[in-house]
Amino acid sequence: MTTAAVIIRGGEEQLGMSWTQREYTPPKSYNSTTMTVPGGSSRGDEGVVVDTTTNTFKEYLPSKTCGNTPISTTTSVPFNTSSQWAPEGKSLAAHIASAMPTPPESPPPTHLATSTICDSHHHEALVDKTTRQLGLHNLLRVSTSNADRYWLTRRCCYVFHCLSLRTKFNYANIPNKMILRDDRVVRAMEQVVAEELEEAGVEEQDDCRARMSLLAKHTARANKLLTDMKAAISSTLIRITGYVLFKVFSNLLMSVTVHGGQQEVIDRAAQRDTPVIFVPLHRSHVDYLFVTWVLFNRQIPAPIVAAGDNLRIPVFGWLLRGLGGFFIKRRLDNCKSRKDVLYRSLLQTYVTHALQAGYNLEFFIEGGRTRTGKPCMPKGGLLSVIVDAYSNGTLDDALIVPIAINYDKILDGNFIREQMGQSKIPESFWGAVRAIMKVLSTNYGHARIDFGQPFSLREFVHNQKRASFSQLPLSSQPHNDVLPGCTPPLSPSPMIEMPVLSNGRNSEQLQSLPQPFPLSEQQKPETALFSPSPLVMGKSYHQRSLSTPAANGNLRLRRTTSNPSNALNTVTCTNSRLTGAPSSSSLFGTEVTEEYRSLVKSLAVHIVFDAERCQAVMATNAVAWLLSYVYRDGVKLSTLVEAVDALRDSLKTRKRDTGFSGHSRDAVLHAVHMLGAGLVRLEQSTTQTSTTSDTEQDFFIRPVTLLPNIIELNYYASALAPLFAADAIIVTCLLSSLDCDLWSYKDCSPDCLVDREKLIQRGLRLAQLLQNEFLLVPACASLLTKLGQVVDNLIDMGLLQDAGKVDSRWSEDSDEDDISFSQQYKLAPTSSTLEVIGAWRNMLAPMLDTYYHAACCLTSLVGKQLPDKEFIQSIQTHVSSLLEKGTLRYGESICVDPIRNAVKLFESESIVECYNHNSIRLVYLTREYDAEDRLSPLISEIDSYRSCIS
Ligand SMILES: CCCCCCCCCCCCCCCC(=O)SCCNC(=O)CCNC(=O)[C@H](O)C(C)(C)COP(=O)(O)OP(=O)(O)OC[C@H]1O[C@@H](n2cnc3c(N)ncnc32)[C@H](O)[C@@H]1OP(=O)(O)O
């Protein structure tokens, strides 16, 4: 075996400082001078070893230090043995080694300043000048007092750090019997027993014994369900795990970066007298480790975390429970036709009690890890529990914190198997051990955690109500919404104190909430905005009275702000009932009104939108995006570097952070390095000129576009998809409506005009077709406006130029007022604009191919029904055969996720319907579409957007 080593020295000297020289900074009071250099702190030698037997570089990156213990990390990068690629004595290894990803600078935490379009939903009070000025902080760098003096402190800095942190909080125990005695659970139990008695044909009054035995059976089941569900946080376990994670992460990752300002804001949020709800987007199993670990570092009580019960595996299940995990069924009902009301009531009651007892909560609103790299559509179940707890007065408010976590390379491998249509391998003890062992031997680059700005649930609901009012005609707006003599504030101050009613609920709550369940006439607040559906009116068991705490007795476990140690368990239980009226909405509610559902849904969309918006773009995302959509046939390193520069500028304009900084060349090489030989090849450039002295030209970077590798590359590229989705939609509509190929008109203008209104209308329809792929705007914003902004952006880019206005409508029987003018544009494509819009078009192209062929496959359903799995598989087989024939260009069109989304779209457009039969979901065409010719308009419509794909 031939090895060549390139030794690069002096990481620490280069930085001009060592961590040991810094002063101890308690984690709570973060000091921006401790801002660290990911991967930059080094001691000892670093080097690069070329292993010619495996065609990889073993690169010994500058070792990270903990005390004076060097921890070396090893990574592999592809290299080409067949050519003399090393230019002028400088090896590729050296290039890569010198391309240590540069530390993220301290970008302004843009998403702290203005998190989303509706800024009024944000707790401005939590952010001030200081928080905005704090820099990035690598959590792996800890400093200890007098570290330069005490060898032991240096040597075991993680131990000392973890011992110095406070983990002991009074995590309340929520006994099973307290939950079982709750009104909601009691009613659920009665309902289940009544149903079973009815099914068995037993009259419940007649058969007391049968009733009692059923009650005993279901009480035992409820007890078991609760025991399996509940978290049991152990402070000691958290401390030990915190330490272990320091050791593990410092081996696997070059940095784990969080913005100091964001941490400060989270500290402040945690000190409020309201529960904090952490809602991260889910990419990896490391996500939940990170969140609790960050909180551990900030000495904030660990939240309870909703974990799918597939994770309740030996040893790990026990560990997760001790670290805050509570286990929920991923599907609430085993059989869709029958709701598991008992389970639903237990889950809702447990979460409500936990929130009231002062626990912070964390859950993954997407319901699982994203398989595509884009955020998944949110689920409303757990969120509805929180909204319900607020609506019934159990909670005064909650602070919701969207979180995005991004990685240079995800630690959980890839989702190729599942995207190719194979079933997920269930979690098991040995599977988890194997995965951990595999992970431990790899370097995963940088990780970045971004906390979005916390916002108040109360404010959100309040603003939603206002938005709904503004849509009502003035005459029907409830007059007493506005306090006498006051003009309603457009965005209420977060600190507004609502008048508190005798039962502990504030009048704002009573007035502002959509009523999930009908109230009797006396109970109905005058201002009830959301009328109950007639369907619900008939259900008698939901017509519960809003019992006052006085009537119920109180369990009031209040959080205190003054002493965090008493944040939990600070008020004694006087009884086992909750303060608020136990409403039946949310999970246990069987017929929640549509208005209430849409409130929860818009909140869910808001959270995902906010979280996505604060996600930092990693170097791997940028490079994968450019290679997938701009340089699919490969590109010279220097060109790619320029493209990354341009992309960074574009991200900056769009107020998006990057998880890297410094020279783009370093970022590109680092990304190539991280993506690995399976996804990206680094080759000697064939266009090398003998005169050039620029060594960058000597490399050629080529994405691996073969299946299944392209699916994984696409995963990394997709992190940017939501950012450019609206642009891609408008550009696709624009290009597909032209009769000419814009690329043949470079630097001259084709003889055609573009109508603004028609373009936006077409964009709206395409956005509707892709509704399951992208969340383009939060519920509080208008898609029409957003698409209009995209068109304006094309004007700014110079692609569209004003060509005057023309009459766009004229109806014969109308007067002149009905004439409207529509703006026309002529096209002025240049090579740079074509490159940008080409990338946007290519981003949607694989997806549109999938949707088109899924629509074509609908013809196979004519006159019959198929299990949905079989139907999806048949679409995938069809796409696969087209790929083999070379008819389709994009390998990623085969992915199962867009196929499923296409089927969901057909269902929402009432083209197909589904029903459950013997636990199999069958899909069939609705009567209106059950013939080939009736499907043609849909197929042609989708095809019309594809016509721009060359
Ligand atoms: C120091 C270091 C320490 C280290 C420290 C480590 C920490 C260690 C912790 C471990 C932690 C592991 C974490 C793993 C990560 C996962 O396992 S992720 C997977 C598990 N988590 C989740 O899924 C959370 C999000 N999911 C949900 O909220 C889902 O809704 C549920 C609750 C799972 C139910 O899903 P589903 O059965 O598919 O049903 P879905 O359609 O969502 O609706 C269910 C009901 O909710 C209600 N609902 C739904 N939408 C709405 C709406 N819009 N409005 C009103 N009601 C609604 C309705 O009642 C609905 O029923 P229907 O009336 O429609 O029949």
Element layout with pairings:
Layout: E1 5-8, H1 11-15, E2 46-51, E3 56-66, E4 69-78, H2 92-98, H3 110-113, H4 129-133, E5 136-138, H5 151-155, H6 157-164, H7 176-180, H8 183-199, H9 208-229, H10 235-252, E6 255-259, H11 260-270, E7 276-280, H12 286-297, E8 304-308, H13 316-322, E9 325-328, H14 341-356, E10 361-362, H15 381-391, E11 399-407, H16 416-419, H17 429-440, E12 446-451, E13 455-456, H18 457-471, H19 507-512, H20 534-537, H21 549-552, H22 594-613, H23 619-629, E14 635-636, H24 637-653, H25 664-675, E15 680-684, E16 699-703, H26 709-717, H27 721-737, E17 753-755, H28 756-769, H29 783-797, E18 800-809, E19 820-827, H30 831-857, E20 865-867, H31 868-885, H32 896-908, E21 912-917, E22 920-925, H33 932-946
Parallel strand pairs: 6-12, 7-10, 7-11, 8-9, 8-10
Antiparallel strand pairs: 1-2, 2-3, 3-4, 5-6, 11-12, 11-13, 14-16, 15-16, 17-19, 18-19, 20-22, 21-22
Helix pairs in contact: 6-10, 8-9, 8-14, 9-14, 10-12, 14-15, 23-24, 23-25, 23-26, 24-25, 27-28, 27-30, 28-29, 30-31, 30-32, 30-33, 31-32
Structural class: alpha+beta
Bound molecules: Palmitoyl-CoA
Query: What is the residue-mean pLDDT, rounded to a whole number?
Result: 75
Instruction: Give the strand tally.
Output: 22
Broad shape: globular
**What is the CATH superfamily label of the domain at 845-948?**
Winged helix-like DNA-binding domain superfamily/Winged helix DNA-binding domain
- CATH fold-type name of the domain at 845-948: Arc Repressor Mutant, subunit A
Roughly how many Å apart are the termini?
47 Å
- Residue stretches low in confidence (pLDDT < 50, at least 5 long) are 1-117, 472-579
CATH architecture call of the domain at 845-948: Orthogonal Bundle
Main sheet properties: 9 strands, mixed
Helix coverage percent: 40-55%
Count of helical stretches: 33
Q: How large a portion of the residues is in β-strands, by DSSP E?
A: 5-15%
Could you name the CATH class of the domain at 845-948? Answer: Mainly Alpha
Please give the radius of gyration in angstroms: 30 Å
Keywords: Acyltransferase, Membrane, Transferase
Region (Disordered): 26-46, 547-567
Subcellular location: Membrane
InterPro entries: GPAT/DHAPAT, GPAT/DHAPAT_C, GPAT/DHAPAT_LPLAT, Plipid/glycerol_acylTrfase
